UniProtKB/TrEMBL annotation:
This is Sulfite dehydrogenase. InterPro entries: Ig_E-set, MoCF_OxRdtse_dimer, Mopterin_OxRdtase_euk, OxRdtase_Mopterin-bd_dom, OxRdtase_Mopterin-bd_sf, Sulfite_DH_SoxC. The gene is soxC. Residues 293-405 form the Moybdenum cofactor oxidoreductase dimerisation domain. Residues 108-270 form the Oxidoreductase molybdopterin-binding domain. Its cofactor is Mo-molybdopterin.
């Protein structure tokens, strides 16, 4: 992936160099050295008002970000086509939407390249008439545009037993928010008709993993979306181009990417993802199946692990909160490890199954402090402490860790991941 960006960047610079009549190799070589991913390198003028800037096409017709913006996804060690992850840099996110190029990724069989002109979605099973939909068919249908987060059920899985990941990108970065555009499943259901015994719908991906999950029909009809748009453009290859399922508030693995088939049935299909992989092992040795909804959760992104506060004084604590049950109702912040709480400001209008950004002013007196945030959603569900969570679900589970996160600020200003 990186090398693609590098090649792209080098090409842009070669063409820019050619246009300007500059020694292309020198420019390209310097750019490869200095420009961060997603940016082209440009010399900084001493006084930008005293020389002309670039004309519109100098970035190749598709805009790049400033060369001074350097945040990138963290890649989980040893990515392979069989299994790979990358984490969104939450601490440097500005606003509520994740830039598409920084959306976290989780692939079970690599990213396929799919020609949208040849891609079809088959809807069949317990339906009136089975149908195939081309991308053109789907784009011609009534569409909706909605903001929702996607969170991998494995987000924060390193934190069950002891504080492990160093920074918020790795503790919580399997979470991203986009504006999605596509067709509601209820619209497709009207096209094909549903048999009276229809209860579940299987989604299937066209990747090498042929990822399959069963989804309750009720969820599919309530707000299940077949999406082709992300933040104003086609969804990224890594997000499932040309088509993916979005199930607002459901665990990430149910949002089938490269979606090619929906099979309606009277029962769940009990695929390997739902009988072994994405189950939650309880203290009594039994496993919970179909733990689909993501619970209320929040995290402080500033200050957070691996940061350094330069001096005591006034700070704005900032973070992100979300819930798979509905809208975020309130967020509280503690600077004393949960002994006292203050309401945070919510910076954007809460939308169902969508993140909010929160902030809370804080005067740091220079003594050690433990920062925490706690989310409550519109159903009244609140984020538990780690002790409360472990008391209920034990320590055998891998997925669905939503406990309150603690960051310790030491008297030297260093911030670390702790269990309070
Ligand atoms: N076809 C297919 N769909 C898939 C996956 C996959 O590997 N193949 N990964 C799932 C998992 S585990 C998650 S968390 C989300 C990740 O979506 P993203 O890569 O767009 O962030 O997609 C889900 N859908
Ligand atoms: Mo996932």
């Amino acid at each position: 992936m990186r090398s693609d960006v590098d090649t792209h960047r080098r090409k842009l610079l070669l063409s820019a160099g050619a246009v300007l009549g500059v020694g292309a190799m020198t420019v390209a070589a310097r750019a490869a050295e200095k420009a961060p991913p997603g940016a082209a390198f440009h010399e900084v003028a001493e006084d930008p008002t005293k020389e002309l800037g670039r004309a519109v096409l100098s970035d190749g017709g598709y805009g790049l970000r400033s060369q001074f913006e350097t945040e990138v996804k963290t890649i989980f060690p040893n990515p392979s086509p069989i299994t790979s992850w990358s984490f969104t840099p939450l601490a440097s996110q500005i606003g509520n939407l994740t830039p598409s190029g920084l959306h976290f990724e989780r692939h079970h069989g690599g990213v396929p390249t799919i020609d949208p002109a040849k891609h079809e979605l088959i809807v069949h099973g317990h339906v009136g008439v089975a149908k195939k939909f081309t991308m053109a068919d789907l784009k011609a249908m009534p569409s909706v545009t909605r903001k929702h987060f996607i969170e991998c059920s494995g987000n924060t899985l390193t934190e069950w037993k002891k504080p492990t990941a160093k920074n918020v990108q790795v503790t919580h970065g399997l979470l991203s928010t986009s504006e999605w555009t596509g067709v509601l499943f209820s619209t497709l259901a009207r096209e094909v008709g549903l048999k009276p015994d229809a209860q579940w719908v299987l989604g299937e991906g066209a990747d090498a993993a042929v990822m399959t999950r069963s989804v309750p029909l009720e969820k599919m009809l309530t707000d299940g979306m077949i999406v082709y748009g992300q933040n104003g453009e086609a969804i990224r290859p890594e997000q499932g181009y040309p088509l993916r399922l979005v199930l607002p508030g459901y665990e990430g693995n149910t949002h089938i990417k490269w979606l090619r088939r929906l099979q309606v049935s009277d029962r769940p299909f009990m695929t390997k993802e739902e009988t072994s992989k994405y189950t939650d092992l309880m203290p009594d040795g039994r496993a919970k199946l179909f733990t689909l909804q993501m619970a209320p959760k929040s995290v402080i992104t500033f200050p957070s692990g691996d940061m350094m506060l330069p001096r005591p004084g006034a700070y704005e604590i900032r973070g992100i909160a979300w819930s798979g049950h509905g809208r975020v109702k309130s967020v509280e912040v503690s600077a004393d490890g949960g002994r006292s709480w203050r309401p945070a400001n919510i910076e954007n209008t809460p939308e169902p199954m969508c993140t909010v950004r929160f902030s809370c002013p804080w005067i740091w007196d220079g003594a050690g402090a433990t920062l925490q945030s706690r989310c409550t959603d519109e159903t009244g569900a609140a984020q538990p402490t780690r002790d409360e969570l472990v008391k209920v679900v034990g320590l055998n589970s891998v997925y669905h860790y939503n406990a309150i996160q603690s960051w310790a600020v030491a008297s030297d200003g260093g911030v670390t991941n702790v269990h309070a």
